[in-house]
Amino acid sequence: QADIDPEKKTIVVLGSGWASTSFLKDIDTDHYNVVVVSPRNYFLFTPLLPSCTVGTIDIRSLVEPTRFIARHKSRTVKVVEAECTHIDPETKSITVTDNSDVKGQNAVSTLSYDYLIIGVGAMSATFGIKGVEEYGCFLKEVWDAQKIRTKLMDCIETAAFPNQSPEEVDRLLHMVVVGGGPTGIEYAAELHDFLVDDLASWYPELAGKVRITLVEALPNVLPAFSKHLIEYTESTFKEQNIAIHTKTMVKEVREKEIEVKRPDGSSDTIPYGLLVWATGNTARPLIKDLMQKFPETQQVRRGLAVDDWLRLDGSEDIYALGDATATRYAPTAQVAAQQGKYLARLFKQLAVRDELEAELADAAEEEKARKDRKLRKAKDIKPFHYSHQGSLCYVGSDKAVADLPFGPGGNLATGGVATFAFWRSAYISNLFSTRNRALVITDWLKKTALGRDISRE
Ligand code: FAD
Ligand code: NAD
């Protein structure tokens, strides 16, 4: 392993999402060799991804290469574009596999670690429902947003094909979103805006026929938001002609229709042109595989169990954070980013502790008491503490909803156009780099002045 200083411990970081990138930004590379392994060589700002599905924002505006972050560290950080396919806690090594389209003679390798940081996130959940993988579109990664955009425009152009039957036009122009969590809501909202702002003038003969339906198994959408905001979202959707079918569970997905179970227990079918599947997260195979290696301590199916210091239950040298874990916190970017920052601080303290322990062994008698005091302080590592900054969700027509912490234990629930202005400014200030900020603002201005691009990519 080139660029590895044998005098220093090696931290291998898995992933380049919110958790791992936040860790990488803050980790002190003077103390450690750092190796990042991720199948995608960039960080993605997921909160604005729904805007990319209709071309409000360009995908390039939301990504920043991992090497850009690595380049700004004091010592070389090795970046390996590959998937970690196996973790061996016994030998403290991992297998990395190049699953990209272009492979060299060697596409599989092993890396050793002193500490392993697992920030591989989660996958879109399908609950084993037949046909979801084959016919549904997820919304988690860059390529998902691109696929949705292409398929949406394909449905519209196919509906405009000569002599299409009215029933087929109806089906092709029926956009169905499954899952009334923030992902499903924000996608439906963006699609509505695209329809009203752009499609109506480009396809006047079809626009009135486009329908958006959101299917949710629970009695209401946005279950994690305040009651008042749930009602506000549902009434805004009603005004926007987005149909919400609550207490409706999708049982099977077929090529052109979904089968659902209605609240009264009856079965029904809903024909669709585009199906966006946003029913939350499930653990990745790598995580499930690792859990099996710790049968005593890893029994939560949702993700990895960690202690209050983010150390994997059952292991001394593996840490996990973000959506890959099962904790009392929601799987959000906010939690993942704070955990990454915390873990970088923890590792700094561990490095100080190790240094002091080594110095103490050789210290003269009169020095020992002073160093011992410092060492006790270094060993007193505080557990992770999450500070909730609030929840935001875009609901369409330049309106957003926000649950914001207010005063001690209080909450401010607000929705509307002013909240949308807050939503925009919050996301702009949270974007990764000045380059991202400049690009997103330009995209918003471009959309306002010129409209969105309707070309199929
Ligand atoms: P991710 O960000 O998913 O990163 C995982 C990383 O691991 C990726 O780089 C991936 O390529 C890599 N990886 C995967 N498998 C492997 C492997 N085998 N080996 C190595 N690397 C691997 N949260 C909010 O707080 N606010 C929001 O507004 C918000 N909006 C969202 C909008 C959308 C559309 C989505 C999908 C999510 C949104 N979230 C939001 C949730 C947030 O994106 C996640 O909670 C967050 O991404 C979790 O961070 P993570 O680092 O754990 O995982
Ligand atoms: P989610 O878990 O929040 O919601 C998924 C929804 O799908 C649930 O309400 C569930 O009842 C429903 N569902 C599950 N199976 C179903 C079925 N068979 N038929 C019909 N409905 C079904 O998932 P998400 O929206 O993808 O969000 C994932 C995480 O990312 C959450 O923690 C969320 O807070 C976060 N996120 C936040 C934002 C934001 O803050 N603006 C945006 C997107 C995602």
Describe this protein's structure:
- This protein has 457 residues and is of the alpha/beta class.
- The chain folds into two domains: 9-39 and 82-122 and 283-371, FAD/NAD(P)-binding domain (3-Layer(bba) Sandwich); 132-281 and 389-450, FAD/NAD(P)-binding domain (3-Layer(bba) Sandwich).
- The protein contains 14 helices and 22 strands.
- A five-stranded parallel β-sheet has the order 5-2-1-9-19.
- β6 (83-88) and β7 form a beta hairpin.
- It is elongated, with a radius of gyration of 24 Å.
- The two termini are 40 Å apart.
- The structure holds flavin-adenine dinucleotide and nicotinamide-adenine-dinucleotide.
Characteristics:
457 residues, alpha/beta, FAD/NAD(P)-binding domain, 2 domains, five-stranded parallel beta sheet, four-stranded parallel beta sheet, 14 helices, 22 strands, 37% helix, binds flavin-adenine dinucleotide, binds nicotinamide-adenine-dinucleotide
Distinct small-molecule ligands in the complex? flavin-adenine dinucleotide, nicotinamide-adenine-dinucleotide
- Looking across the biggest beta sheet, what order are the strands in? 5-2-1-9-19
CATH class placement of the largest domain? Alpha Beta
Beta-strand content estimate? 15-25%
Mean pLDDT value: 95
Overall outline: elongated
What is the CATH architecture annotation of the largest domain? 3-Layer(bba) Sandwich
| Number of DSSP E strands | 22
Unreliable runs, pLDDT <50, ≥5 residues? none
Tell me the domain tally. Answer: 2
Structural class category: alpha/beta
Helices, by number, come to 14
Largest sheet: 5 strands, parallel
CATH fold-level topology of the largest domain: FAD/NAD(P)-binding domain
The Rg value, from CA coordinates, equals: 24 Å
Beginning-to-end CA distance, first to last residue:
40 Å
Into which percent range does the helicity of residues fall? 25-40%
